[in-house]
Amino acid sequence: MGTALARFLGLAALWIVLIRSVQPADLAVGALTAAAATWASLRLLPPDAGRVRFLALAARLPRFLWQSVLAGMDVARRALAPGMPLRTGFVPYRTGLPRGAARNAFATVTSLLPGTVPAEDDASGILYHCLDTAQPVAEQLATEEREYARAFEPGKGHG
User: Fold this and answer.
1) Tens digit of pLDDT for each residue in 121-133?
2) Domain ranges in the chain?
3) Half-sphere exposure at residue 68, Cβ-oriented, CA atoms within 13 angstroms
4) Apex 59 CA angle, 68 and 154, nearest 5
């Protein structure tokens, strides 16, 4: 119930910020919209599907920014050196994170690893599209998961 209330209040606040009105009619529509969005969010991302600890995630911000720089340089290098061999393909990664907020945050963070982007998420893990499948992609992902483990709290019963 606490999760539903927090989501509702956050969505209602977002409505007020976007609409910039506190007229009764606008607030009524906003309350209905926030209630519908809360219901949808609870169906799509149940509260027990894992949590993100935002302070622990924020502590990883320097690493995230560095990975962003490396990824940008890698893509630029590949674009400017057309003779570089590319071995594009998909690499499956079995994560220990449950489907939900924690896994979504992990996929977002790892999307900035050089030459990788999450392409699919299913019960067995995350499938990454890679520019070079000869690179140690799974090992890099495992390192990232260990680095960010404190920021992700597993849910109950979703493994």
Assistant:
1) 988 899 999 988 9
2) 2-44, 53-150
3) 8
4) 95
